[in-house]
Structures are given as C-alpha cells and as structure tokens.
Amino acid sequence: MKPDDTSTPTASEPIAPNDAFIRDRATVLSYAALGCYTFWLYAFGPAVTLLRDELGFSYTLLGLYSVFWSLGAALAGATFTWAARLLSRGWLLWSSAVGAAVGAGLFTLSAGVPATLVGTVLFGLAGTMLLTVIQAILSDQHGPRRDQALTEANIGAGASAVFAPLVLGALAVTALGWRVTFAIPALVSCA
C-alpha cells in the first residue's frame, strides 16, 4: 500500500510492522464486557438445575428456560440491524450490558418461576445483543487486525466456559450458595 492510500488492506496483503495492535480503552472494555457475559452464560445452565432443585419444578419446565433464553436471543438477532442503524455502538454496548446484568440479576435473585423466566428472556435478549455489538466494536476498532481482537476476546470467553461452572459448583456447596456466582463478574470489574 502507498502511504497516502486509505483503503483497507485485503486478507492477502501483509500488515506493515508499524501497524501495531493496540488494546485501547474500547478494546479492553469490550473484552471485559464479553468476559462478564460469558461467565454468566456458562453459569446459567448449571444454575437452572440448582434452581429446579430449590423450587421443585418439573424437567419440562426446566427445558423452558432454554426456550425462553433462545426467544430472547432470536429477538436480538431480529432487531440488531435495526438498532445498530439507530443507535451508537457505545449506547448499544452500555444498554445491552445493563440489560444483561438486570436479566442475570432477575434470574438469580428472584424466588419464583415467572420472575426467573422473565430474567431469562431478558438475559437472552440483552446478552445476545451485547455479544453482537462487542464483535462490531472490535471489528470497527481494529479493521484489518480484527481477527486478533476477536481471537483474544474469545480466549477470555473460553476461559469462562471452564471457570464459571467450577465456581458455581464450588459455591453451591458452601453457605454462600450458588447465587453468589453471578455477582463475581461485577466484583471483579469493580476491583
């Protein structure tokens, strides 16, 4: 590429050595938001089983939690393009993060099936919207280097797949209980 060429390099063009990958504030925030969401997501499945044990509902109702989460996720998929045209990436990121936290909170802190199902739908909707806007932000920020940003983000998300169920199981047998697991991302973010 010429120095005055502002076009985006193609996948076959090498990236110049001085095009260092920079983990700016937006990148780090995106990584943290994805880490929180995936921690909650990977804790959600085992937590539904623990919730079933506490509330004594049927296995059929247990399956509805996945259905309700999927309904929220499908709604996010159906509305993201429209929302992305109307709203800024920052607004989508923060509103989705708050919505996912509220959904996870409703699921965790409610004592009845209807409220936990509402939390599940909201968690599926806002969480999927959050996941989608994070990918868009990282792609926007890093252009031809987005593959590195998305890979790094997914490494953190993959770690949640291991740690969230372990933490949930460890806390479930303590006096603190399994619900404390859902507060951990907030506590880590504030630290």
In words, what does this structure look like?
This protein has helices spanning 25-55, 59-86, 89-109, 113-142, 146-172, 184-190. Helix 1 runs parallel beside helix 3 (89-109) and helix 3 (89-109) packs antiparallel against helix 4 (113-142). 75% of the residues lie in helices and 0% in strands. Mean pLDDT is 87; it is low at 1-17. The protein has one domain: Growth Hormone, Chain: A (Up-down Bundle). It has 191 residues and is mainly alpha-helical. The N and C termini lie far apart (43 Å). It contains 6 helices and no strands.
Tags for this entry?
single chain; Growth Hormone, Chain: A; about 190 residues; mainly alpha
What's the alpha carbon Rg, rounded to whole Å? Answer: 19 Å
CATH architecture verdict: Up-down Bundle
**Given the structure, what is the number of helices?**
6
Class by alpha and beta content:
mainly alpha
Shape: globular
Strand residue percentage = under 5%
Largest sheet: none
**SSE run:** HHHHHH
Mean pLDDT figure: 87
Instruction: Quickly name the level 1 CATH class.
Output: Mainly Alpha
Helix content estimate: over 70%
DSSP, total strands:
0
Instruction: Supply the CATH superfamily name.
Output: MFS general substrate transporter like domains
Could you list the spans in which at least 5 consecutive residues all have pLDDT below 50?
A: 1-17
Please give the domain count.
1
CATH topology label = Growth Hormone, Chain: A
